[in-house]
Amino acid sequence: MTELAKHPVTHRHWILIAAMLAMFMAAIEVTIVATAMPTIVAELGGFSQFSWVFSIYLLTQAVSVPLYGRLADLWGRKRVFFIGTGLFLCGSILCGFAPQMGWLILFRAVQGLGAGAIMPLTATIIADVYEPEERASIQGWLSSVWGVAAIVGPLTGAWIVQHFSWALIFWVNVPIGIVSMLMLARWFPESRSEGGQKLNLVGSAWLMLTVTALLAGLLQAENLGYWVSLFFAVALFAGWALVSHERRSSEPLFPLAVWQNRTILAGNAGNLIIGAAMMGISAFLPTWIQGVNGGTVLQAGSALAMMSIGWPLSSTLSGWLMLRTSYRFTAQLGSLLLIVGTGLLLTLDSSSSVISAGVAAFVIGTGMGMSSTTFLIAVQNSAEFHIRGICTASIMFSRMLGSALGTAVMGAVLNYNLMVRLPAHSDPVQQIMSYSQRQGMSKGSLSQMIAEISASLHWVFAVSVLIAFFSLLVARKIPAQKPRKAR
Q1: Other beta carbons less than 10 A from residue 49's beta carbon
Q2: Whole-prediction pTM value?
Q3: Residues 153 and 31 sit within 8 Å (Cβ to Cβ)
Q4: Residue 256 clears pLDDT 80, i.e. is over it
């Protein structure tokens, strides 16, 4: 029995606001930094290291998510949240003082290590203070944070770099994080499982090595060349060692219940698929709009924003549906919407409007929000308190891993098609996306190149449709029951 189970939590609305502030801080970090990066590169140099500013953040975040989830079960939610948020804020402050690109990458790694705690811990805290039948509707509020951040982030980033130093884009997080921590310190009661369990350090080390090698290989496959096989070999060996150690350990990093619970396994598989499918739109729809259609960066960003708007709206709707139908029905409906949305991408051609792309993005976001939220709530409601932290973290980690896998697979599909269709051209996508190079081409050459790139992107979208179909199969594995009130 935990302290939260013994006594009802008061001031839940303040705890919810604190959690939303923390999530907003992490969500806006992604969009606001992307907007300011051209300015940062212009001042610090090091364009060849540009991609590592994003990759190292995602890598350290993904590596730390499962560890924070387990620590939250062992040490308590509040303590671990403060550790992670403190690291995130320290990294944010240091990023603003980075004198060159190498230092910025190092400080982004620190920032990512802290960010790994924010998403799973805020979701776990909310699950602790709200009843199972309430969590579904509350999740809609949390998801809305991402929609707001997707719109506010780019606008704020552009305004800051235009009027102030780029360092401010990292420092705006500091007051938000401090307020969130103070609110949780005041109103959220500490909670932990009773018992003398300790963190499995050997298992944690093997996990970190496995994830680091795998994600580094996936995120930097194009830059690593043949060396990527070494990273995958290390990931395979470390993964085997992790499984072997977990089987022998008396206190495994992932408790046995995680592997034995059908709902938890299905929830993780579903989010892995959602993360992979999401990259079909996030990474490649802007390429379609700017390259094939000749649209602007603003138009591409507006189309992507439609996905961020559809996600929180459907997340809120999924709470209502779950209470009136079942987890399975809601997840299947979300998967069907995801299939329809990715299918709409296949209808795009060079004459399609940005509105058509935005409609497809909205339907995809709607499907993702509905299915992802349902998977998360089903997992949290089926997990006992003492493993709720690691179960919630596993959901977040699965989505991140899926995104990396999706990017690698679809990137490989695109590059293979371009190599076959346009063997004489080096980086044809860059050529048609560059205004000066595009203007220098003859009308016939430009039309041919656009047609071949369009066909190549259609293969990427076809892979997204195939991945979306798998989410429908996984949705059938979760219970056909409604969220029930805790006893």
Answers
A1: 17
A2: 0.82
A3: yes
A4: no
